[in-house]
Design a protein that fits this description.
The protein is α/β, with parallel strands linked by helices. The chain contains 5 helices and 6 strands, in the order E-H-E-E-H-E-H-E-H-E-H. The protein is globular and about 50 Å long. The chain binds guanosine-5'-diphosphate (GDP) and magnesium ion.
């Protein structure tokens, strides 16, 4: 994406969720179109270019291993991630109820942190992964959809193991959200600017007439 002054605009994306839900599988599928099976536990930061709606977008994607501390809003590590991020992909497995509950808690923590930082709406995409394991499903699609609706996020059910296209949709969806949020931040800044200059004019007039 290119800014008004021609400079490139990157977007920072953090992928979060409990262990074993397929965070690394999802990212590797997006980057390479492949599913390898085993990914290890290495923390990684990837940079990847995508074209969304005809415009190029550079994404910095942080694959961070899960730690219990993540669910504590006081965790310094967590604060760092939230501050760095322009958008989040929150992953659970449709066969793991606890991972779904963790996503609800993560949404709360992100919203609280971002409210403190003064953001209006945080781009978040919720992903229910492993939909190929339908026979082991413990979280219904409707539950995921409802959570996304109540938290004002996007929602996708995917299988990193079986399908590239739906994984691509996740990241495209997030890029849309990030672009929208940047436009609304700019609009807000514009309105604030107008209010400022108007109040400057009025203050000057008042002092002129004294
Ligand atoms: P992470 O800990 O969240 O990064 O999870 P990984 O990406 O390492 O995946 C954990 C395990 O789930 C691995 O054995 C993957 O092969 C498997 N896995 C990941 N995505 C899928 C999926 O969509 N379907 C199935 N059946 N297995 C998956
Ligand atoms: Mg991983």
């Amino acid at each position: 994406m290119t800014g008004l002054n021609g400079q490139r605009m990157d977007a920072n994306v953090v992928v979060l969720g409990t262990d074993n839900v397929g965070k690394s599988a999802l990212i590797v599928r997006f980057l390479t179109r492949r599913f390898i099976g085993e990914y290890g536990d290495i923390e990684s930061l990837y940079t990847h270019n995508v074209v969304v709606d005809g415009r190029e977008q550079t994404l910095n994607i942080w694959d961070a291993p899960y730690s219990q501390q993540d669910l504590s809003s006081e965790s310094l590590m967590y604060e760092k991630r939230v501050q760095w991020a322009n958008g989040f992909v929150l992953v659970y497995s449709v066969c793991d109820r606890a991972s779904f509950n963790a996503v609800s808690r993560l949404i709360q923590i992100i919203k609280t942190n971002k409210d403190i930082l003064g953001f209006e709406k945080m781009p978040i995409v919720i992903v229910g992964n492993k939909r190929d394991l339908d026979h082991r499903r413990t979280v219904l699609s409707e539950e995921g959809r409802l959570l996304a609706l109540s938290a004002d996020c996007q929602f996708y059910e995917v299988s990193a193991a079986e399908n590239y296209h739906s994984v691509l949709m996740v990241f495209h969806g997030l890029v849309h959200c990030i672009r929208e949020s940047r436009v609304s931040v700019k609009k807000l800044a514009g309105i604030k600017g107008i209010v400022k200059s108007m109040s400057a004019v009025f203050t000057r007039r008042r002092t002129d007439s004294l």
